[in-house]
Amino acid sequence: MQEITLPSAPNMVVVTQNLTKEFNGVSVVKDVNLAVPQGKIFGFIGPSGCGKTTTVRLLIGAYQPTSGEVTVLGHSPRKFRRQERENIGYMPQQFVLYPDLTVRQNLNFAASLYGLGWRERRHRLGEMLDLVELRGHEHKRAENISGGMQRRLSLASTMMHEPELMFLDEPTAGVDPVLRRKFWDYFRVLQKRGHTLFITTQYVGEAAYCDYVGVMSRGRILTVDTPEGLRRQAMGGAIILMQLNQPLPMEDWLSLQELKVVSRGVSPVGNNTWRVVVDDASLALPELMAWAQTRNVEVVSMREDQPSFDDVFVQFIHEEERQEDARNE
User: Fold this and answer.
1) What does CATH list as the number for 12-232?
2) For 292-302, what is each residue's pLDDT tens digit?
3) Other CB atoms closer than 10 Å to residue 327's CB: what's the count?
4) Where in the chain do CATH 3.40.50.300 domains reside?
5) What pTM does this model have?
6) 320 φ/ψ angles, rounded to the nearest 5 degrees
7) Where does the chain show beta strands of DSSP type E?
8) In whole angstroms, what is the distance from residue 203 CA to residue 181 CA?
């Protein structure tokens, strides 16, 4: 798998070099190299148990690396001062707030930890209650609200002081699709204000909302790229679906594959429809139409296809498994 270095930016808020973590001699995170620019949303996707949460805990200083280097906001997490910690927000997967306090009391407590004055605290509390849709539940004890509501309360507590850098571990887990989209809309608002967000998720489709995405499997980073770059990596280029009015004869199939705009071959997908992998869809479409006219091939439709991120992710994982099996032979 190809690992892509992120473009340069004025500040890299997270940088790791060969970051590795072992537990009882077993590597859970292996040689992770990352560079996350300031003011971007970095998505971290991978199957459950692949090492995402362990990586985040290394970045916030909860775990010490077995080997490798890590800096966050220009400092080693082992040497964070109060100022660095106040500039970081962390939402863990588990609910760690006070169950015997109310929703409002938990938010007030989180705000007080970072010295928010009462006027600012009042404004932020209302804003957060509306964002996570807990308005009307603020006087309920945290132990008496649902698990999904506890997740939303955790997110609100993490963002109360608007930290410069936020690590959100599965923030949308257990959240309905409508509210999930609302969260991502707000994450974009925070990004526009200059905040950096490092978000882990098992909802692979959420990669579309990120500026950059890291794909992890078995403790390793398989690749880092933009969402569109991930599609191109996984599929070998852009994909055009060409539906014909009749089966494609062998001689026409061979002719189609020989076109210069075709980069990774032509394959059938059923119903007289063919998948054509090209480098550039905008350049390839007119060339393919011209080819069809020359060969008297009747085209019903021809369009660029956008594979889902689920398909993209599965492709990466299958390729990693294939390479892992080859290494173990």
Assistant:
1) 3.40.50.300
2) 999 999 999 99
3) 7
4) 12-232
5) 0.84
6) -65, -40
7) 12-23, 26-37, 41-45, 67-72, 88-91, 165-169, 196-201, 212-217, 220-225, 238-244, 262-270, 273-278, 299-305
8) 12
